[in-house]
Amino acid sequence: MESCSSLRGFCVTVKPGLLKSVGVSFGTHSSWRRKRAFFQVSAISFQKFIQFALNETKRQTHLVPSPLQVKFNTVNSMDGKTELQMLSFQASKIRLLRSLSIETEAMQVLDFAAFPEPEFDVPIFCANFFATTNTNIMVLDLNPLHDVISRADYKERYYKSLMSLGLKYSELLPWGGKLTGESLKFFSPIVIWTRFTPSQDKYEVLYSAFMDYYEAWLGLINRAVAETDASQIMCNREAQHRYLTWRAEKDPGHGVLKKFIGETMAKDVLRNFLFNGIDELGSRTFLDYFPEYRREDGTINEKRSVMGKSFENRPWDTKGNFIGDHSK
User: Strand, helix or coil at 179?
Assistant: First the structure.
């Protein structure tokens, strides 16, 4: 046995055709003029990424809509000009597979993730893409459920066979600059964290990376054997709850959501949709997990980093070993 160390409030109608069997129709009601402007932001629509993931998952397992889909599906921005699309599914080994996408003439956002059931310690698939006319900020990873720095057995089991994949795309999509020490705890040695100016070639590489990483994740979840030891299942639950608690509080997408739908609804989407499970998988609070963020008055420090340490370059070597002395 391995040791363990560690929107409410709004309801919208599902549009006809949003869920088509398990597949999804991603037709747009936008005008040709809007499509043309949007194409200038991204040569590849992120809807293509979502459709690939759903099709591949559906091909390998029985994927069904999540109960969350009734409440979290489509919502308009406060100014009525932008539509936020949310999709959510589940399967026998997948607690939640969900996506949130935003498309405007000047910006495109995708937040896509897949979480395993607590009986499995498989990593969490994570794709966070933010594209504008000037720059693109992308994170793609199989986020480790357990610490890959202190848990060599976990790193060996899930990442050793994937290092060649990570090295391939880390060369094509170079490290994007400083990453805080706190955030690094939730990334794996194969993480793709990159920035680039918009180009057709880069989008093709990103789409290829997304497909390869997602297929790798599906392989892991398909081969995974359910844990039967109650203490290990509890360990997995706590690890996923800790991850969700961190992301819901410190996710950089909070500001984008707040801009479109306001603070109250943004927090609701973060806690109850994007990082759903906080209320179901555990009862510990953010400050229970991360006491270093506690202010003197007992509130949470809003800074993303309190360590004062960041990593300018990729902090893992080609074998996936952590090289923390490269931090700045």
Answer: strand
